[in-house]
Specification:
two-stranded antiparallel ribbon, 20% helix, globular, single chain, alpha/beta, 169 residues, 3 helices
């Protein structure tokens, strides 16, 4: 199955700028990207980054075992966004280094627990998690029919110049 992700350079810069801000006690910031989703024929998905929703400072919970822990209010707010409009929700955070990046084992465990919640409000859409570096990104999509986690194969950052990131599967 082919999964494509497209985002404007301006929106990606907005996300990186927000995620780079310091928090009173969390070691990192997280947020959600609302995306338009479309089915690719013969099989696959394309996600188009539409709007970024930062997590409010008060929705972080103190927890030294992870970089950032968000509470149920943050998840509820993201669920409400998807409930109000037919949107795929993408959890995003930043690993502050240059070059290719990957999910940590904690990232994989926690997103696998969180992402399926979005099927309660948008069961027919894929939902995803993306980790950014300072100049790259990678991600996974949870496909609604199979409930499988799939890599995002191709990423396009629309700007000048265009940037293409391909993940070898």
């Amino acid at each position: 199955m082919n999964v494509l992700f497209k985002i404007s350079e301006a929106l990606l810069n907005e996300v990186r700028h927000d995620l780079a801000r310091r928090h009173e006690f969390a070691y990192e910031r997280v947020g959600f990207l609302a995306c338009r989703a479309a089915i690719l024929e013969p099989e696959g998905w394309v996600l188009l980054g539409a709007k970024y929703y930062p997590i409010a400072d008060e929705d972080y919970l103190p927890d030294n075992s992870v970089g950032a822990m968000i509470g149920s209010d943050a998840i509820r707010k993201a669920l409400q966004i998807a409930y109000n409009e037919p949107l795929s929700m993408v959890h995003v955070h930043l690993h502050p280094h240059r070059g290719q990046t990957e999910f940590s084992s904690i990232d994989e465990r926690e997103t696998a627990k969180m992402i399926p919640n979005f099927w309660h409000v948008r069961p027919n859409l894929p939902h995803a998690a993306i980790v950014l570096s300072l100049d790259s990104l990678c991600g996974f999509v949870w496909e609604p029919a199979s409930k499988q986690r799939l890599p995002i194969n191709d990423i396009t950052v629309v700007g000048t110049p265009m940037k293409f990131i391909r993940r070898d599967t």
